[in-house]
Amino acid sequence: MNQPLQSRPAEDAQELAKRVRAFVDERILPREAELAGPRESARACQDELTAAAREQGLWGLFYPGRMSSLEAYLTVAEQEGRSEYGGAIFGTELALDTHMLTRHGGAEIRAAFLASLLTGEGVSAYGMSEPDSIGSIPATIATTATAEGDHWRLDGRKWFICRADRATFVTVVARTDGAGVDGALSMILVPTDAPGFSIAREVDILGRFQGQCEIVFDGVRVPRHNLLGQPGAGLALMQERLGLGRLLRAVHWLGLAQRSFDLMCTRIRSARGEQARLGDKQLVRLRVFEAYQAIASARGLLRDAARKFDARVANAIEVNVAKVAASQALSRAVDSAIQVYGAEGLSSLTPLSGIYRAARATHILDGTDDALVSAVGRRLLDAYQDADSLDFDWPSLSGTPAAQ
């Protein structure tokens, strides 16, 4: 049985990042083909690497009490993200739930669900999107949770639910009161072994199954104390979760962007690259410049959003802009790398084709680019209703809260 996380003195983030990078380069990257292979062998490989990460004290680094701040963790997280499998192996995929349950879970939730996450025995999933609702409009959520004595009864469907294939519980966004969103939605934790819970089908992402499924709640009953936070607080919890979740995902994308950039520049300076005189071509230099600019810009935006998160001030604009920037940086870097490699970059001879598929998905995950750009654009224009200038350092402190 895995042991609970032990608190330890804060380790210098730069030194910890070096240790994580070495683990990724030496242990994970050589086995990426295996991790992308048949499900049974891939799962065994992931479990083996996770155990090794735990032995080296590199698992769950952003779990409550492990890092001094989100800003400090970003340096480490970029190195975790150098492989698209890093989030699962280092336990970072579950970090968001450990924070949400720590902040908003009662004693029963902490004992039944949080404790298993902290030991590595539990696996969490989050159920918000639905087949017949619009993901960016919470008012369209139709799954219901009806109070019946000392239990909730849940009915509905969710889809594109990450880790649903192996989750031990799901945090479900359900309608507990009336229409709309204000005071009508709540978050309820549902064990996946509860009667009435089932997986309707597996859902692939760009031709690859990555643990996402459509799930069904058919009269599922769970205790009333499985409520996260207060009744009707679902919208506020969703916004809190989205803010932190977007930052945690986006910083991993920067890790993949940096890896793609490294592969591109190494290829340009290789013997084959020198033979083709790639470094002398202006369009190649432009690709290097633009990829570097995109990565450096996204990194700065993420750090700004993280500093404000740590200071507990409004940062919705900063988070959304940083998320879009990180997605764009990854897409630009991997696309440029593939262009430099040519046909080889499209094949399994390099990791670039897999990274490219992951990059395209980032423009949809955790809020589509279009929805976030529209929301931020509206918010920025709203700031000019009562002023003729915007404070770029604190845009989220002006006007009304930005839509998430």
Automatic annotation (TrEMBL):
It comes from the Bacteria. Keywords: FAD, Flavoprotein, Oxidoreductase. Gene3D superfamilies: Acyl-CoA dehydrogenase/oxidase, N-terminal domain (1.10.540.10), Butyryl-CoA Dehydrogenase, subunit A, domain 2 (2.40.110.10), Butyryl-CoA Dehydrogenase, subunit A, domain 3 (1.20.140.10). The keyword Oxidoreductase applies. One of its GO terms (molecular function) is acyl-CoA dehydrogenase activity. One of its GO terms (cellular component) is cytoplasm. GO terms for biological process: fatty acid beta-oxidation using acyl-CoA dehydrogenase. Residues 232-381 form the Acyl-CoA dehydrogenase/oxidase C-terminal domain. Residues 125-220 form the Acyl-CoA oxidase/dehydrogenase middle domain. It holds the Pfam family Acyl-CoA_dh_N. Residues 11-121 form the Acyl-CoA dehydrogenase/oxidase N-terminal domain. Its cofactor is FAD. PANTHER family: MEDIUM-CHAIN SPECIFIC ACYL-COA DEHYDROGENASE, MITOCHONDRIAL-RELATED. Belongs to the acyl-CoA dehydrogenase family. This is Acyl-CoA dehydrogenase. It comes from Pseudomonas indica.
